[in-house]
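Entry 0007
Protein: Immunoglobulin domain-containing protein
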Amino acid sequence: MVLIGLLRVLSMLLLFPAELCGLISAQVISVTGTEGQGITVRCHFSFSGNRMFFCKENCNPGNVLIETSEEKAQKGKFSIEYEGTVHSPVLFVTIKPLTKSDAGRYKCGMSRFFGNSEQEVELIVKAGEFYSIIINIYQKWTCTAYFYLLFLLSLLTMCTIFFFLSLITVQTQQESQL
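Output (structure tokens):
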């Protein structure tokens, strides 16, 4: 009986070593948020670690947005929180407020003595209602201002032409009287 159990564990270690260590994740988490609001991403892992992190694109030193060994941390618009058990850890990463430039690929992860476990996240940011209204007003005002400017320039040009025509007419009348 013990031998069968050991054989099962050995076969799992040989067939699925990366999954048991939590070194690879099954899928990319896709989340959609609205500009100006906040979003929370939930990352699940196989085993807990001693350090949590959240990175933009890859986890090179310059791309780490927030990292901690504590259960909670906040840095600027990013916060990270650990929940769950040793065998079922969950990281909650919150970004608020969202901007269009926040859209892209991220990685949330846990660091352990035998390597990092990372979950890839794809963040899509939609334009918020407030921002859409501002953009529409800007576009309308820009077009309206442009047409008013064209109208004023046309009016100024016509006034200038009439002024010179009247000067020419007056001068011609004066010359004809002499």
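Curator remark: Confidence is low (pLDDT under 50) at residues 1-25. The longest strand covers residues 115-126.
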